[in-house]
Every structure is written in structure tokens, then in C-alpha cells.
Amino acid sequence: MLQIFGITYNGSSAGLQTFTLCDRVIRCKAAVAWEPGKPLSVEEVEVSPPKDHEVRIKIAASGVCHSDWTYLYDCEKGVKTPPFPLILGHEAAGVVESVGPGVTAVQPGDKVIPVLLPHCDKCEFCLSSKTNLCTKNW
Ligand SMILES: [Zn+2]
Ligand SMILES: [Zn+2]
After folding, report:
1. Comparing C-alpha atoms, which of 114, 4, 2 is closest to residue 62?
2. pLDDT at 64
3. What is the pLDDT of residue 136?
4. What distance in angstroms lies between residue 113's CA and the mean position of ligand 1's atoms?
5. Which residues fall within 8 angstroms of residue 33, CB to CB, at 6 or more apart?
6. Helix extents (H) in 15-128
7. 62: burial class by Cβ within 10 Å (0-12, 13-18, 19+)?
8. What are 28's strand-pairing partners?
9. Spans in the chain with pLDDT lower than 50
10. Which residues are within 5 Å of ligand 2 (an ion), measured at CB?
11. Phi and psi, residue 42, nearest 5°
């Protein structure tokens, strides 16, 4: 099972239409890091339907940022990382494709930008329109 950070990548910037596939596994392309320090492998992966408080996003574009780089290359320096394999590219833009039970903040069809850290929606930074670095998860 792959650790996905709630992100799917469809390998294309075309087609922002949404689908209602919340009860089915979908297949898409992803840049997979199978182990630290090794090249990424772009391959087809399966993405399960969203579970409680999860969303599945049809990604239009994404990039690999320095946090991804840190997970891939600095974990041997003591940096805590999620377990491998990882799918990198959490800095993305897309459209909510389906939502799991308990999701109330977004709905299928909403344009969204995934972020690395979860939000508490209560701290000074979550309530600010100028940043998204939640103090409870940083
Ligand atoms: Zn990032
Ligand atoms: Zn917060």
C-alpha cells in the first residue's frame, strides 16, 4: 500500500471535469519514491475511494518541493519521514473528485490546493488569510 498524502496525479493538465467515483478504486500515474535517495519511478498506481475525513483530488498540476526533497534525500541525516514508499508532489492544484464520510469543508467539483500539513482551523495561522502553516502541526 502506498502512502499518498491524499494526492492523486493523473499525468495530465487537461480535463478538470469531476467524476463521481467515490465507491471505486481508480488508476492514475504518480512519481513514486520506493526508497530514500533513489530516483523516482513514474508509474501507474491504484487509489482507493476516500475514507472518513479524506478527499480524493483530480490533480491538474503538481511539483516536487524542498519538503519532498528532504524526505527523499535527508532522511539518513535524522529527518523524520513518513514510511516509504511515498508519492511526492503535495504542492499541487486540482479539483475534488470525491469525498469520504465526515467531509464538510469541500465537495466534489471544488478547486483546491493540497498542503503538506493538516490544519486545525483554530490557531492564529489557520485563521489568517496570509499563511497556511498551522502551529499545531509544525
Ligand atoms: Zn511542499
Ligand atoms: Zn492551525
Report:
1. 114
2. 85
3. 83
4. 11
5. 40, 41, 71, 72, 84, 85, 86, 87, 88
6. 66-73, 124-127
7. buried
8. 45
9. 1-21
10. 120, 123, 126, 134
11. -85, 115
